[in-house]
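Trying the structure run again after the queue cleared.
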Amino acid sequence: MQKELREKIRDILWENGCDIEDLGRVTDKTMAVINLCTDTLVKEDIAEVLPEIKEKASIEALKQVRAEYRIAEGVKICGLSRFITEAVTVNDEELGQGHFILDKPFYDPLSEDIRMFFDDITERWLVRVKNGTPKFISRFVVVACLIIDASGPGSRRADVIFIKGCPKPLIFWRGIIEPAALRKQTQFHQKGLTVRNRDLYHESFLRALCMCPNVFFLTMPKHCGWNTTPDGRRVFVSSENMIPVLADLFYDEKE
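Done. Tokens:
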């Protein structure tokens, strides 16, 4: 392309009366000016779009890191016990996530004028009323959920839900997530939400649960001593080897 441009410049200079002795020198200078201007324009264009490119790359890298974190957390939680499985068979029926966690689209509007959405950059649940400014509701990110002692589609002893940033998992007996129980376990009143936003707080949690990539089943040992795991292995269970986050489920009789 440079060669074609040079020849075209020589033709124009020759047609406009440039001396044959000066034709090469003038052509060289003209090409130098054109290259300089082109480089300047290219650099200016790059400088203009570079911040946007860097921002997009940073956002994508952040999303990738968070996705890998959730996968790693799922692997870690799945490895807490040999009694944890990805599915469970009850009365010859294999049960999976869909039998317990509703696959509800988390982007559905709450009403014609109210829309709740998850900002995956800040990891915050926001609500927008009509065209107003989005308002903060919660920071629920569910990294894993354990379905405890499933006995049939939708029936289980409890749900144990692991929330990002919470040192202790939340426990909901029989899988019933009541707003009052949620607020109590997550210290709702310290978050500064108004009374009218309590339903939105609860809704954001349910939607975060629907987005959870790691839903497993935990069949609790029936007693201390030798027990059989879901995959048929014999494991000795005692208070010494009970995992702290699961101990409440083994001993609690209040459900």
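Residues 82-251 form one domain. Worth checking whether this holds up in the mutant runs.
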